[in-house]
Design brief:
Elements (H helix, E strand, L loop, with lengths): L1 H17 L2 H9 L4 H25 L10 E5 L5 E3 H15 L4 E6 L6 E2 L9 E9 L10 E9 L19 E9 L3 E6 L5 E6 L4 E6 L10 E3 L10 H12 L4 E2 L5 H11 L1 E5 L10 E2 H14 L3 E3 L16 E2 L1 E4 L1 H35 L1
Parallel strand pairs: 3-5, 11-12, 11-13
Antiparallel strand pairs: 1-2, 3-4, 5-6, 6-7, 7-8, 8-9, 9-10, 13-17, 14-16, 15-17
Helix pairs in contact: 2-3, 3-4, 5-8
Length: 364
Amino acid sequence: MVVSEQNLVSERSLDRDCTTLSRHVLEQLKSFGADAQDLSAIMNRIALAAKLITRRLSRAGLMEGVLGFTGETNVQGESVKKMDIFANDVFISVFKQSGLVCRLASEEMEKPYYIPENCPIGRYTLLYDPIDGSSNVDINLSVGSIFAIRQQQGEDLDGEAKDLFQNGHQQIAAGYVLYGASTVLVYSIGTGVHAFTLDPSLGEFVLSHENLQIPKHGATYSVNEGNYWQWSEPLREYIKYVHRNDGYTARYGGALVGDFHRILFQGGVFLYPGTTKNPQGKLRLLYETAPLAYLMTQAGGKASTGIEPIMDIVPTALHQRTPLVIGSMEDVELVESFIKKEEVKKVKEVEEVKKVKKKDKGKK
């Protein structure tokens, strides 16, 4: 009996070692058809990019020209780190000869990058943030990459990629890579959320967590409280609420992927609200908030601006920004309740003003 149990454990362990990312995609799609093969191959290329970035990050402190700023700014006016450029180039390089992806769109590039030789065959677009939280690179803290896959619609003859200006429901896959103590790739193709850990001895991403479900409520709230006085009153009221009530813990690492990963696994809420300086926040819809919203809804959580679902927003620009409230269902709804309370209050105030004006008019 002991031997058979050991054999069973060994078989389960071996099966897990054999469940690579590309195999898992095909199993989730329950198909070996052309579309399934394409999506599996695209995910395999993303995994290759993640391995190359992992190798670079692991040697960053030992190599020249890896850390620090380039002295340039990106399309959003942000200072560019050397790792931003390297990671962006990696994604382009691994897809150039793939025949899979026609366009790549990144927050580091003003316009989409077209691969003409792929366009007759590859009908997909990869949208990505090559290095999220790049300010953490120089101090050896966790960073990540975020990605989404969309299918090209139409010919895009003018090169404007306007078919990308659709809501998050049009994503056919999304995920992120967390570069930390281990490298973890989390993805969804609409059949749940699954996590893979890079096994250096195999050189493969191996299934480590399947069908992740976020708790309905979590103790963690994650937000940069340094912006407290730049937020709207409802957000400040929410923070006062968690300060006054037991059971809440603040955790904020300065990299969206790392903070999101914690929330996904343990529950809670991550907030990146707008400020007086940046009313729409700083996160990009197509590269950051929509892909993570796709994952969160697949895991049973919720993602919104505080007012409307992230997945429902139709962008009007490639680099459009949105505020973000994302995490456990109950925690996101609690944040939203503070915002809605303020909205109701404003509506009542407007109605009162109208009544007074009407009354004054009647007297005249």
